From TrEMBL:
It comes from Sphingopyxis fribergensis. The active site is at C89, H345, C375. This is 3-ketoacyl-CoA thiolase. NCBIfam families: AcCoA-C-Actrans, PRK06504.1. Residues 267-388 form the Thiolase C-terminal domain. Belongs to the thiolase-like superfamily. Thiolase family. Keywords: Acyltransferase, Transferase. Its EC number is 2.3.1.16. The lineage of its organism: Bacteria, Pseudomonadati, Pseudomonadota, Alphaproteobacteria, Sphingomonadales.
Amino acid sequence: MPTAYIVDAVRTAGGKRGGRLAGVHPVDLGAAVFDAIADRNDFDTKAIDDVITGCVSQGGQQTMDVGRNAVLASKLPDSIPAVTIDRQCGSSQQAIQFAAQAVMSGTQDIVLASGIESMTRVPMGSVATLFMKEGLGHYKSERLEEKYPGIMFSQFMGAEMIVKKYGLTKGDLDAYALESHRRGKAATEAGHFQREIVGVEIDTPDGRQTHLVDEGIRFDATLEGIAGVKILQEGGSITAATSSQICDGASAALVVSEQALKDHGLTPRARIHHVSVTAGDPVIMLEEPLFATERALKRAGMKIEDIDAYEVNEAFAPVPLAWLKYLGADHARLNQHGGAIALGHPLGASGTKLMATLLGVLDATGGKYGLQTMCEGGGQANVTIIERL
């Protein structure tokens, strides 16, 4: 079977809700990362077979195949097709896996996987809310309601269920959130994000600037400050400080075949070693990365000790903490440059964003194998294992 390689992966620095990227159309965010891929890699971009773009909130400025619109707004040739997909938070991780599968099947040689999400301009849940307000229906059909009566499939409730099931405390969550900010700060100050972040030109009260630093990192974060944030639900443990930050951003990864490496003189950064996706309980939903990772390692013939770096999306602090506990994984190898609690979680853009960061972590530490997973709506989880070259 042909091998799929990752040549490059880039992302914008995260923008807070209403923050520095709020003035940028999501199509232009996508165009920025597409341009960076074209600029950084010396090959004929007309050879790109397809662009696969993850986006969760496909409404307003993110409709009409936002991935294709980003191609048209970029310096890529108009002849390149694009499709926009939704696997909730794992949308652009799925884009990577679809790209890898296309290459591994031998049907395509160069695929650009990507993700776009402006949570400022197209707020989370806004599309479903609009249709309900207009009396145009609810996402739950009669049959779905019969099977899951009165259940709204809340990720927040799933996170609280994980807290209880895995014996976590609010103190555990607060300490983890602090560590995310500290790691994000350390990675920023050490320059570890320089290779993965591409600049976006923005207008500010101080004039035209280039956005290059993740806006969500609290460089002065303290445990006392995090612990003092109000609990979101009475009797619960989760706060806004122990949840992922709403974020604007885009990201992309160039996935190619061995033939494309030869034909275009490209140098791979990593080989895609394993791809899989699983689904489980849609109620506790955020727990699925635990079982998905266990299954992926078994299918890959590996143990958790073989993995040098893990990126487990910090949708809520209980998710990576439960993942560590269930798998007996090494906390020091987890989200080493910080995670979504500090850096932000731009929904459909997070998959390729995490891949850019995972590659950077492996480069910085000299690690060989990296694993990426994230919880997704509906109780799903993708797992991608790469080998740094």
